[in-house]
Amino acid sequence: MLNELLLIKKIKEGDIKAFESLFKSYYTPLCLYAVNITGRQDVSEEIVQDIFYIFWKERERLTLFHSAKSYLYGAVKNRSLQYCEHIEVRRRHREAVLSGKVKPEPTATPQEELEYHELEKLIDRTLQQLPGRRMQIFRMHREDGLKYAEIASAMNLSVKTVEAEMTKALQTLRKEVEVYTRTK
Question: Which one of 8-12, 49-53, 126-130 scores highest in mean pLDDT?
């Protein structure tokens, strides 16, 4: 327990070696724990990686009432249960749609369809005008569904850089959409 408290103190001070030690100690057992809840290895690894990412990112503000072990296991349990709940909601919705209990959305008017396609073209043109890296980050996040950490890893960038590029891309899109809606 005393060693763990010293380790946590070092992590809070930004000691990456201490964090790596904690990661190596708990990564595999946490993945196994998450697999027991989710039933999926890939999802479990992503959950555990996200928990460690948050742990590192929030290290200075982190308040542990018990131990790092109990914090990590609790966080993995909560995230795993959230995943299972999400999957269950999707399954129930799919069954409701297939059984006809959920009515499809009403169809749009021709005017709404036209406006939708105009807006879609505007967004596409705006994205094409973004700097290459910014456009790629935006598409990886919005179209491919990748998380900032995954994009950062794939592009060999920091997560902060990815966040900054996404913020700039969204600001540009908002400005263009505002101009479009004012003219309508």
Answer: 49-53
d(CA 13, CA 60) in angstroms, rounded, equals 7
**Has this prediction a pTM greater than 0.70?**
no
Residue type, 72: L
Burial class (CB in 10 A: 0-12, 13-18, 19+), 63: exposed
What single-letter amino acid sits at 34? A
| Structure tokens given for 80 | 């795993």
Tokens (6 digits) for 149: 């950490």
* 8 Å CB contact between 72 and 30: yes
SS3 184: coil
Cα–Cα distance for residue pair 136/152, rounded to 1 Å: 12
